[in-house]
Amino acid sequence: MEGDPEMASRLNPYISFAGDARQAMEFYRQVFGGELNLNTFGDFGGMEGADADKVMHAQLETERGFTLMASDTPPGMEHQPGNNMSISLSGEDADELRGYWDKLSDGGTVTVPLEKQMWGDEFGACLDRFGVSWMVNIAQSS
């Protein structure tokens, strides 16, 4: 909130879905853990019928400090998935990162297998079951 000295600035992914934001965010909660908050369009009295149950805003906050936000594309707007964006997970905790990789790639499409690359790290890329692009890089300890 503006003017709140306790609220630090942050940058995080915000993903638009074509009606399956709830399922996707529940999947990501299974992958990463944490607390998921969901609000539907109906929660704010803006819509009725089937669209009322669509997600207006979802936010997942994990114990590791990850924040992931999402929504369903509002009615009347076109959902345009693209290939110009990926979510990147990186670090040195190989077991943790492999665990995320296994869950994210399960039911999805592996585009680059998670294996040692020419720069010395383990790296993999996949599209998860919701069509979201992920990259995982496991840095090798010096």
Automatic annotation (TrEMBL):
<dbReference type="InterPro" id="IPR029068">
    <property type="entry name" value="Glyas_Bleomycin-R_OHBP_Dase"/>
</dbReference>
<dbReference type="Pfam" id="PF00903">
    <property type="entry name" value="Glyoxalase"/>
</dbReference>
<protein>
    <submittedName>
        <fullName>VOC family protein</fullName>
    </submittedName>
</protein>
<dbReference type="InterPro" id="IPR004360">
    <property type="entry name" value="Glyas_Fos-R_dOase_dom"/>
</dbReference>
<feature type="domain" description="Glyoxalase/fosfomycin resistance/dioxygenase">
    <location>
        <begin position="11"/>
        <end position="136"/>
    </location>
</feature>
<dbReference type="InterPro" id="IPR028973">
    <property type="entry name" value="PhnB-like"/>
</dbReference>
